Amino acid sequence: MTIMGTSDTPLWVQDRDTVITEESNVEWRYGTPPDYSRNNATLKQQSQYNHIEGSLEAIVQNLVRTFEMEASFKTNPQQWLSVVADKFRMRTNTEPEYTAEDIVAAGTYNLFLGESDRYSAKAEDFESSGRIFHEAFPNGFLWEVIEVLAGPPNVTFKWRHWGTFNGAYKEHQPTGEIVEVVGISVARVTDDLKIESLEHYFDTNSFLGKLTSGEKAIANGCPFHQ
């Protein structure tokens, strides 16, 4: 299904590299725009779904990748193109809702995973949470849309998140296996395809269980980075 052509496609549902290139005066978290060249190369090799440009699947995939980029690297939510910043709310598995400001402060990993015996959002901040998963997946933790189940205004879509577990997760040694998470999300969008709310549903316990299946590097080690 194709819903619009290139000429009338909003910037935030185009390729995220195009979004980055077209923007100016952005308050980037690390002072400069992110570089997705390595990520893009791995995606080209490992993606299982090559959605046709202009299709609903491609539009949704671009929108969510733009949102992820903005949530990770833009410190001013008013500069996020992908969302209606003042209305935006996000939740995972019926947990409490979070605002864009909450995401900037805590990071998506903390808000996605919360508290369990395998991960504690309270023990991590934005920087440390990102470092944990960058160490576990040194070649990238990739994301793509599998299929779109319902179109706007409540866009329901199935996705996969995956990466090769080649680095330690906390004190657990890597297994070298591909860790894949499959989930469902619902994005309520405006007429011009900006996200007002985003709900994610996936098995966090299964994901963390795969990361803690390897042997511990240090006996009786602290389960959290200090």
Q: Determine the N-to-C terminus distance.
A: 49 Å
Q: Residue ranges: pLDDT <50 for 5 or more in a row?
A: 1-6, 218-226
Gyration radius, to the nearest Å? 17 Å
Secondary-structure element pattern, one letter each = HHHEHHHEEEEH
Organism: Gloeocapsopsis crepidinum LEGE 06123
Protein name: SnoaL-like polyketide cyclase
InterPro entries: NTF2-like_dom_sf, Pathogen-related_defense
What does this structure look like?
The protein is α+β, with helices and mostly antiparallel strands. It has helices at 16-22, 37-46, 56-73, 100-106, 108-113, 126-136, 204-211, and strands at residues 89-92, 142-150, 154-164, 178-189, 195-201. A five-stranded mixed beta sheet has the order 1-5-4-3-2. A hairpin with a 5-residue loop joins strand 4 (178-189) and strand 5 (195-201).
Which helices and strands occur, and which strands form pairs?
Blueprint (H helix, E strand, L loop, with lengths): L15 H7 L14 H10 L9 H18 L15 E4 L7 H7 L1 H6 L12 H11 L5 E9 L3 E11 L13 E12 L5 E7 L2 H8 L15
Parallel strand pairs: 1-5
Antiparallel strand pairs: 2-3, 3-4, 4-5
